[in-house]
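Form 7-S
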Amino acid sequence: MSTNHSGTDPLKLADQDGHFRRPASKFRDSVSPDPSAPFPAEKDRYVLYICYGCPWAHRTNIVRSLKGLEDIIQLVVMGDVLTSDGWLYDGKHGSAPRDPLYGFTSHSQLYLKADPEYKGRYTVPTLWDKKKETIVNNESAEIIRMFYSAFDELLPAELREVNKPAGGYYPEKLRNDIDSMNEWVYDTVNNGVYKCGFSASQEAYDTNIVPLFESLDRLEKHLAKRNTSYLWGEHITDSDIRLYTTLVRFDVAYVTIFKCSYKQIRYDYPHLNKWLQRLYWSEDEETKGAFKKTTHFVSIKEGYTMATKSKIVPYGPKHPIMPLDPGM
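Output:
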């Protein structure tokens, strides 16, 4: 298989010992509300590049919608095909036929425009600055936190974090709890499914599959004990957003394509299932319909099928998300 500009094959997912290890993101600047900052918050200056199948990109698209940033930050959606040149534009499933800014046909071209000497994978999400013609950031965890508050001065008062019930999506009083949960959820759940699905040895798979389900059991007990609508209370936080993009893919893709088949969310985790149903189906002031409208199951299934070099997209499940229970 051909190699990319970095001299590495981005489709070779496991290391020599059979384990999948995610490389660190390379672009780590921030958008700031300070007008004198290198990347100040401005309307129509930034572009968010994503593909619908990617859970890391999905996080940023959810927050863009929750925060009412659709008219402030442009969205560009690439297709579901990942090659040695990164994600491609193909115009399928609501994606763009080519990059609307530069006419590019692959994501690698954007990375190399930002840095002709760039060496690494051409990942999403990617936050692009149209004025400086460079990548601001390609780390989802940092992009969503920018989106929480960096653009607030451009938003109506009711959408600003300072006016949100319970302190917004990353409230000061819960930050230690949120950060602590995010750490183990990332390692064993968000990234854990990849460690299982991209394992290239039985030992690597066995090492990661047990911690994955132990953490799902832990999350189930957390929700059962708290008896709240969301992970930290009656309002959505950073932890809910990060976990959602993994669990909404679990029964649909990870059970079959990634061999995470020991349990299913819908049948074996009643509290997590109810939490997932609430986020997906609700269109109230809390969710704003952002979770459902940014979730694209066809792209999810086709993307993971191609990522694992399979030619067969699994049929089903009949209900990607179980229908709401009456009275929920």
